[in-house]
Structures are given as structure tokens and as C-alpha cells.
């Protein structure tokens, strides 16, 4: 796992939609599940959302806690 990806998950904000302005790691799991069923966007944002989906799905949110501070 690239540490820069984890760092972006705790700093980058959702650029559009219902959760515009919310830091990616704070997106609710049902929103990520919805994206998983509909398809993640292409590009970097899609990769980050898919990574966050896998982190939340596997109960690995604790990996992001030290980076939030």
C-alpha cells in the first residue's frame, strides 16, 4: 500500500455530489457500497474511492486514524 494514497484519503475532499466537500475518509460506507454497485468513477478519484471501499469493507479504518491527526 502506497502511504501517499492513505494520506490523500484523509486530506482530499469529495469534489461533487451529495457529499461534496466531505473528506474522503469520512464518506459513509453505504455511499461507497452504492458506488461499488454502480461503478467507481474513472481516474484517481475512482481509485481512491475503491481503496476506501476496501478499507471500510475489511474493517481497516484504524489504518487511517494516525494520519487524521
TrEMBL record:
Pfam families listed in its UniProt record: QSregVF_b
Q: What is this protein called?
A: DUF3820 family protein
What are the top taxonomic ranks of the organism? Bacteria, Pseudomonadati, Bacteroidota, Sphingobacteriia, Sphingobacteriales
Amino acid at each position: 500500500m502506497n502511504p501517499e494514497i492513505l494520506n490523500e484519503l484523509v486530506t482530499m475532499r469529495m469534489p461533487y455530489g451529495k457529499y461534496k466537500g466531505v473528506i474522503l475518509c469520512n464518506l459513509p460506507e453505504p455511499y461507497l457500497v452504492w458506488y461499488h454497485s454502480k461503478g467507481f468513477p474513472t481516474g484517481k478519484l475512482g481509485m481512491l474511492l475503491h481503496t476506501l471501499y476496501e478499507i471500510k469493507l475489511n474493517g481497516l479504518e484504524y489504518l487511517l486514524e494516525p494520519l487524521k491527526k
